[in-house]
User: Which sequence fits this backbone?
């Protein structure tokens, strides 16, 4: 697929993977310090785990005749988390570039599956709580090196995932705009359908669009169960900007998940029914994947469910 053709522009429906980190930690027993997957690229065993993980999703996409959004495992590959893990600026730049090389190699190994590569950017902070916020200008400077590494190595687009507040998101979008690379934004919400900052989805999307001249190609929601946010999806022009969902399998709050001794996988069939309802509500999902607690079984059922439904063209 052309790098300029994004999922929301295609007649092909796309899936994404499930919860990379939770799958590796809870199902495969892989230790991920600070829930960071990018260090796996530094070892043969780590690369093997990532390869096996992503190849499963190529199989699902092939079976259902859908496309695949292939993520770099770089949600934590920014300066703050990198420092905790012993990566300086040069090492982070190198591993972000190698992450792109990895996903491009996996895409090349499956030429029969329509694939787009996505450079994943996480929040500076926790990803589930706001913590210390950044103004847009600071956020742009902070995230620009990772975006540049992605762009220099030929990523198709970048995505800010699990965003907790609008200001950092605006900075990421502006940094991406400076390079010309397409950018997607995915917000997370609490059980009340609001961002951890307390902002509504409608207000957050509107604020980012106004500040960046509708910079994001589209928006997504991730790391929350559909029951947490479906009620917040009220009609309005902003609603049409949401083209993808990567939900949690559990109905627990972020705080409850952090304290849970075991992984809550929820019900894959029930989750797929929620996705079908969101497909109707949002006028046709371009991208459907999973987040914390989901694995290939969840995405397989979701993919099969949506593949049987007519894709509404954007």
Assistant:
């Amino acid at each position: 697929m052309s790098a300029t053709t994004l999922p929301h522009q295609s007649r092909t429906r796309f899936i994404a993977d499930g919860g990379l980190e939770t799958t590796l930690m809870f199902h495969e027993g892989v230790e991920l310090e600070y829930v960071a997957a990018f260090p796996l690229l530094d070892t043969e065993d780590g690369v093997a785990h990532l390869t096996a993980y992503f190849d499963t999703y190529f199989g699902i996409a092939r079976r259902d005749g859908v496309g695949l959004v292939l993520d770099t495992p770089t949600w934590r590959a920014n300066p703050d988390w990198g420092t905790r893990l012993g990566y300086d600026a040069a090492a982070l730049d190198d591993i972000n570039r190698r992450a792109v090389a990895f996903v491009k190699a996996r895409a090349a190994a499956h030429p029969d599956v329509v694939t787009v590569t996505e450079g994943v950017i996480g929040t500076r902070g926790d990803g589930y709580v706001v913590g210390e916020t950044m103004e847009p200008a600071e956020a742009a400077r902070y995230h620009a090196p990772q975006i540049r590494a992605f762009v220099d190595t030929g990523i198709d687009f970048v995505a800010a995932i699990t965003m907790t507040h609008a200001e950092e998101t605006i900075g990421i979008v502006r940094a991406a705009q400076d390079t010309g690379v397409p950018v997607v934004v995915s917000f997370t919400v609490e059980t009340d359908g609001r961002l951890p900052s307390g902002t509504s989805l409608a207000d957050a999307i509107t604020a980012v669009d106004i500040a960046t001249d509708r910079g994001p190609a589209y928006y997504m929601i991730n790391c929350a169960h559909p029951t947490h946010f479906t009620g917040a999806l009220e009609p309005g022009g902003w609603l049409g900007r949401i083209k993808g969902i990567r939900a949690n399998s559990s109905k627990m709050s972020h705080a409850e998940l952090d304290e849970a001794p075991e992984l809550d996988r929820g019900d894959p069939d029930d989750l797929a029914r929620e996705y079908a309802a969101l497909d109707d509500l949002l006028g046709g999902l371009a991208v459907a994947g999973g987040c914390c607690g989901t694995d290939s079984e969840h995405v397989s059922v979701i993919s099969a469910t949506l593949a049987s439904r007519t894709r509404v063209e954007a």
